[in-house]
Amino acid sequence: MFNMSSYTDWEKGIVNRNYFVLHELLKDSRVSKILSVDFLPFTFKKVMKSYLQNVIRGPREKVVYKDLTSRLIKLQTTQRTIPTSSGGAGQASYKLQAKDLFVYSTIDSVISQKRLTGKLEKIIKKLGLKNILLWSYNPLYPNLLTDIEASSRIFDTVDNWIEHPSYAKFKESLKNGYKTISEKADLVFTVSEELINFYKNLGREKDVYWIPNGVDVEHFNQQPIQRTILTSSGGAGQATNNQQLLKNVKHPVIGYIGTIEHRFDVSLVASIAQKNPKKSVVLIGPIWKDVQEEINKKLKKFPNIYFLGRKSYRDSPSYIHEFDVAIIPHKLDKFLAFTNPMKLYEYLACGKPVVATPGAGMEMFKDLVYIAKDPREFSEKINKALKEDSLELKEKRLEAVKKHSWKKRVEEMLKLIEEKF
Length: 421
Known about the structure:
With about 425 residues, the chain is an alpha/beta fold. The chain folds into two domains: about 5-215 and about 410-420, Rossmann fold; about 240-405, Rossmann fold (3-Layer(aba) Sandwich), CATH 3.40.50. About 35% of the residues lie in helices and about 20% in strands. The chain has 16 helices and 16 strands. It has helices at about 5-10, 15-25, 45-55, 115-125, 145, 170-185, 195-200, 215-220, 240-245, 265-275, 290-300, 315-320, 340-350, 375-390, 390-400, 405-420, and strands spanning about 35, 60-65, 70-85, 90-105, 135, 150-155, 185-190, 210, 225-230, 235-240, 255, 280-285, 305-310, 325-330, 355, 370. The two termini are about 20 Å apart.
């Protein structure tokens, strides 16, 4: 599996579709081994980060192979810690047997693709991999789908990187990459219906399937963890984790969780804060450098906007449960049509009312999500969502999102693979 991020990022709680698919595959009896290849760097900056973070340091696991530019480790088990289902104090954990999960980190991608392919072939032989399924998330290195011997080749298309500002300098490479994928992949999965049309325009219509994102319902539909804390008088008392996390933040809370980057509509959020001065706007997530200046100029002046920074996947349910209404304020641009925000499913799994700009996948929850096309309508929908919210609606949201678990998504993928091969 050629990943769109690194295993060390996942360990920090920075997760994505790639992470969930891999871990669902680990649970499946039809999968015996996975060779997980960390995101292959393509710029000097990314090379340095990957080299230090993954090759030199990396997870503290059994090293199977190591040289100057790469490192292969074997994970013994993958342990996940979750709150107890009762919502009481304490944590429950379970170990997911990793079978034979190997993680390969390298910077050979910028040195020589021939060198990279050669090393991968040696590792495949060393690990005794047979009946190989190549599964890629990286359109910058499409030749890896064809240069390595395999029984089948899958490409899972997460967004359209051609339209992503971060890859503006690599548009031509990406265009060639997607063209190669459309010609060589045996099966193509996409996160949005618009991506099916994208492949049609490249001449690929057969064996392209829309598999939207999903959610770990159990992880998000947990009750806030009770923790014992010292009261202001010095005695012991009980307070929910949420109350500590959003201390001094007044309700109602309009909440957002996710990366604050180019797709985040700063002007829209400024309008929300201005039109709702008695409500708190809580923004959780890292801020990318290319939007920092706009954030400073347009949002830092509002006393009712709170920036809480990046929070791990493990902790995100506790924050979302404190929202009174959750928002997805994405820009209405070309890139949006190719996306399917995971936060939509996560908000609903927490039972929260959601107000969002139009986007891929929203129609699946059209009766449960408030769609707004401009700043005025967005604020109106926020107030409507707060007014209409009820226990009955919370239960409907949860029931609706249960159909979209990651387990069901990967089962659908594997069914298509079995039918094809």
